[in-house]
Amino acid sequence: MAETDVLVIGGGPGGMSAALAAARTGAETMLVERYGCFGGVITQSMIGTLAWYRSNACTVDAGGIGVEFEQRAKAMGASLSIFLYEVVDTEVFKFIADQMIQAAGIIPVLHCMTVDVIMEGSTIKGVVTESKSGRQAILAKRVIDATGDADIAYRAGVPCLMDPKNKLEEVSVNFGCSGVDIDKFLNYTLSKPSSIADWGEDSGEKESGEFSTFLLEPFKKAREAGEIPDTSTRVQSYWGNFTDAGEVTSLNAIHMPDIDPTDVRDLTKAEIEGRQYVMWAVEALKKYTPGFEKARLRTMGASLGVRESRKIEGAYNITEDDVLHQAKFDDSIGIFPEFLDGNHIAVMPSTGRYFQVPYGIILPQKVENLLVAGRCVAGDKVSHAATRQMMCCTVTGQGAGVAAAVSLKDNVPCSRVNIAEVQKVLKKQGVRIA
Ligand SMILES: Cc1cc2nc3c(=O)[nH]c(=O)nc-3n(C[C@H](O)[C@H](O)[C@H](O)COP(=O)(O)OP(=O)(O)OC[C@H]3O[C@@H](n4cnc5c(N)ncnc54)[C@H](O)[C@@H]3O)c2cc1C
Where are the alpha helices (DSSP H) in 2-119? Predict the structure, then answer.
């Protein structure tokens, strides 16, 4: 199909940031996505809360492209300001993504699944794609795997880790409703505000009393009444956004365990079961939630939302200790606050503490000229609860994009990139690295 300098596979927050950063550093860049829009979980699962941890003036983050996403949405009137963050309108974000990608001169390819790699020894030379155009190849001098599942790294022979499916984070079919009396709903939820400590097994050891958009009561009542079956699928909702048109656009309520996100039969099962749970959840909202009496289901996620699957083994694997004890690294490509959410641990970054994100976690073992970005970066189970967060995915993405472009300019492999130069470019692009 094409030859390019930098090829990014996967158009989520990690991949978009990687492509934008590479192009802005001067590399010819192509971005390939299997679905019909960019944005990944943002647009496919309607998650617009890129930085919901930012509830306190102490909280710091890296800035860079992640913050630019929020600012672009705000400038278009396509976000809701809550505390110190923006909830991005995930429909409009499809258009924002197109605009940013076009403005940077990136070559976009949608509806194109990457299915294999082209290797020369231990160096990646390109990928094989499947699309309506048939089976094609794209050759590239640098490849960035931002598929979430480390599809490319895995096929290229990078050692990868994945827990058995009963130990992975749950998957979700998200949904949105219209016809909601927003004032009534807000009065109801704010009259007995939830905190993170109410999350039950999700809140983990470090419970936080911080406000949370968490809704349990209607689903509990429906379960008790036998209207939602009592299975291992948890039904409890985080609601991300509402509009003055009577919409609650992001209900993150269906949490399904025991699904392998790299197994197509499991993915199919979860999509179908998830939609059944959505129907039950909407009935529960209508029956037991003030403001939802006349609500209608308007949207279901275009794709299942996946929180955890394969992770690469990197030149460095970030640890629980690093993310909880303000780790510092000479090869920092950005920072991320001490914020963890997932794998039964929740820590809110209300203290101003943060860790540095090392280049080593995006640099895979064994394969040259391949980098990864987003939730498949190298690290242990607890660190994943930080690195999977969208803002952290934009940090690893921006770092990967700049590193790919700098290594090309200097004609050295990714493993020998001049990290001081990468840091200089990142700073110029507005990223805080220390
Ligand atoms: C239900 C749910 C709620 C969440 N809530 C929050 C939240 O409130 N705040 C937060 O910060 N994080 C949240 N997260 C986590 C966060 O959204 C993800 O970890 C993050 O989006 C990962 O970014 P990514 O770019 O690595 O992957 P993704 O966003 O998954 O993007 C990967 C992209 O690659 C494409 N792709 C995959 N394989 C291929 C292939 N072989 N060929 C071509 N394209 C491919 C996919 O279609 C997708 O567009 C949530 C996650 C889920 C599932």
Answer: 13-24, 41-44, 65-75, 90-103
